[in-house]
């Protein structure tokens, strides 16, 4: 089979921006070079979840005149006119003066959008340029020739629960490419393989989990429109990094979420129930009065920052977007960096005449667009919160002046301390309902894509730490039974928390057959 010119893994903002930019340049040069995007979801957007506040300059560069070309979609982007931050105690809320909020966290004149809708729109723009998007295909591994990437191998399809071929078995195909762009999100299967081999990051990558729900609210609700609200404090303990967000989505919906750094030490912390606890706060309860949850989901966020960015390219491959760790926690943003990184990657590929050895220009292109400059400015932001919010918040104001690199611990190592949160929560929505609201679905008779490497380690974890996986998974995939851990893989929303947070690193997240997982439509 003739190799594809450029193969892109993942139809998110980064992958689609890469594809659009490539085809624009190829079309202008009257080149017939092929650009193919492989997406594991059944449809672009189904696996994409974010806040999402976006700086639209990236769209202006990628698709000039897009507002006039598609006024209906442009109308969906709601400009931020009201931007607030609060510190919450269990019963009270204190607004933080604007002067004390770091400049990067100001969101006025940014725009609010469902990232699922943004991805759906970008996919249509990509197809219009001539990009081939193949949805419902999972990639299992990279194909290497020494230290060069030559393409990907797809997942075998049609196996039963015992991993035996069914009548419709289809062996995973090898897809060869001159250049492979990895846009498979935070800790994606292929980007994880890439980073393990190529390395380059000084600090380990660390993550948060974001729990999100979308609520339909009654007409004239208190929250209003064109509004962004962030909080620190309750329900997070002072030593748990993160906070909450509330964004208006038109006149009928509110997006709400809670972010928690996965380096928490509590073996009984349940992020989905922490979100339910947040909803009981007097300020939040007022905003959500008579609101009805219509969608839910979870995802992990790479937040290690500048020192956790791996080597961005190797012969035959590049990393873009979240796969590269291009999220700026000082700004609480990553979407426009993802889109800019896609364009920067495309420019490096085309200017190098699709030469796998000429991809080094990618880093220069990121510098020219200010992506690495912003990441460098926030280089110690996440690190200062390792000492808790009361020390981290003031230090975050001057973190860019700290003359040395601050280190990070891997998230799972903190759980080994074995502390207990001891919450007594009666959630309005349990984890089974939360999973249902995500629309997630998997074939019941397929092999579990969640692998326990050594069951004896689970027994040790049960005795020493009370099986944290049975608590921290937001959709209750893991349950402890007398004979060990029972895995309900069909509940999985592909957030990857289990593989990151397992204290003994005893869980391996592998890709299921394509077309499965959550079906986010307005997240």
Please give a structural write-up.
- By secondary structure, the chain is of the alpha+beta class.
- It has three domains: 4-65 and 117-201 and 309-369, FAD/NAD(P)-binding domain, CATH 3.50.50; 79-113 and 205-302, D-Amino Acid Oxidase, Chain A, domain 2 (2-Layer Sandwich), CATH 3.30.9.90; 414-509, Alpha-Beta Plaits (2-Layer Sandwich), CATH 3.30.70.
- Helix content is 28%, strand content 24%.
- It contains 18 helices and 24 strands.
- Strands 1, 2, 8, 9, 10, 13, 19 and 20 form an eight-stranded mixed beta sheet that branches. It has a seven-stranded mixed beta sheet with strand order 6-5-15-16-17-14-18.
- α1 packs parallel to α5, α1 (13-28) runs parallel beside α9 and α9 (335-351) packs across α10 (361-368).
- The mean pLDDT is 94.
Layout of helices and strands, plus pairs?
Elements: E1 4-9, H1 13-28, E2 35-39, E3 53-54, H2 57-62, H3 66-69, H4 71-76, E4 78-79, E5 82-88, E6 93-95, E7 111-112, H5 115-129, E8 132-135, E9 139-145, E10 148-154, E11 157-159, E12 165-170, E13 174-182, H6 189-198, E14 207-216, E15 227-233, E16 242-249, E17 253-261, H7 271-278, H8 282-287, E18 292-302, E19 313-314, E20 317-319, H9 335-351, H10 361-368, H11 371-377, H12 381-384, H13 389-396, H14 411-415, H15 431-438, E21 450-452, H16 455-465, H17 469-472, E22 478-481, E23 484-487, H18 497-501, E24 507-509
Parallel strand pairs: 1-2, 1-13, 2-8, 5-15, 13-20
Antiparallel strand pairs: 3-7, 4-7, 5-6, 9-10, 10-13, 11-12, 14-17, 14-18, 15-16, 16-17, 19-20, 21-24, 22-23
């Amino acid at each position: 089979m003739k190799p594809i010119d450029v193969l892109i893994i993942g139809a998110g903002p980064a992958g689609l921006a890469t594809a659009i930019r490539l085809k624009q340049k190829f079309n202008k040069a009257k080149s017939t070079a092929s650009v193919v995007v492989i997406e594991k979801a059944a449809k672009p957007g189904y696996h994409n979840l974010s806040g999402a506040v976006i700086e639209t300059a990236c769209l202006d560069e990628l698709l000039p005149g897009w507002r006039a070309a598609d006024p209906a979609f442009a109308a969906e982007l709601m400009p931020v006119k009201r931007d607030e931050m609060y510190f919450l105690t269990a019963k009270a809320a204190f607004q933080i003066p604007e002067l004390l909020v770091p400049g990067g966290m100001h969101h006025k004149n940014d725009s609010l959008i469902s990232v699922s809708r943004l991805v759906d729109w970008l996919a249509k723009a990509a197809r219009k340029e001539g990009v081939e998007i193949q949805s419902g295909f999972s990639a299992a591994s990279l194909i290497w020739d020494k230290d060069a990437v030559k393409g990907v191998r797809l997942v075998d399809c049609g196996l039963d629960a015992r991993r035996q071929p069914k009548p419709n078995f289809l062996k995973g195909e090898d897809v060869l490419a001159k250049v492979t762009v990895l846009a498979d999100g935070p800790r994606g299967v292929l980007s994880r393989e890439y980073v393990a081999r190529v390395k380059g990051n000084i600090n380990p990558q660390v993550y948060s989990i974001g729990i999100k729900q979308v609520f339909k609210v009654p007409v004239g609700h208190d929250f209003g429109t064109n509004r962004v609200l962030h909080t620190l404090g309750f329900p997070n303990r002072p030593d748990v990094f993160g906070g909450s967000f509330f964004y208006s989505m038109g006149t009928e919906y509110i997006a709400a979420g809670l972010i928690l750094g996965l380096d928490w030490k509590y073996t009984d912390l349940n992020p989905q129930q922490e979100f339910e606890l947040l909803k009981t706060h007097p300020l939040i309860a007022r905003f959500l009065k008579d609101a009805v949850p219509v969608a839910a989901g979870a995802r992990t966020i790479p937040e290690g920052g500048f020192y956790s960015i791996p080597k961005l390219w190797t012969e035959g491959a590049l990393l873009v977007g979240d796969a590269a760790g291009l999220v700026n926690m000082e700004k609480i943003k990553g979407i426009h960096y993802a889109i800019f990184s896609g364009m920067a990657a495309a420019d490096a590929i085309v200017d190098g005449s699709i030469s796998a050895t000429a991809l080094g220009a990618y880093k220069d292109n990121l510098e020219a667009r200010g992506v690495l400059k912003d990441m460098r400015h926030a280089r110690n932001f996440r690190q200062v919160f390792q000492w808790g919010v009361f020390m981290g918040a003031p230090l975050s104001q001057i973190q860019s002046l700290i003359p040395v690199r601050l280190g990070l611990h891997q998230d799972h190592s903190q759980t080994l301390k074995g502390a207990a949160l001891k919450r007594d929560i009666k959630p309005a929505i349990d984890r089974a309902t939360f999973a249902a609201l995500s629309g997630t679905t998997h074939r019941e008779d397929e092999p579990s894509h969640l692998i326990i490497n050594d069951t004896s380690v689970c027994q040790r974890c049960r005795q020493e730490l009370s099986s944290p996986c049975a608590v921290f998974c937001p959709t209750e995939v893991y349950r402890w039974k007398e004979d060990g851990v029972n895995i309900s893989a069909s509940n999985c929303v592909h957030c990857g928390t289990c593989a990151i947070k397992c204290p003994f690193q005893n869980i391996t997240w592998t890709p299921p057959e394509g077309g499965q997982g959550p079906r986010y439509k307005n997240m």
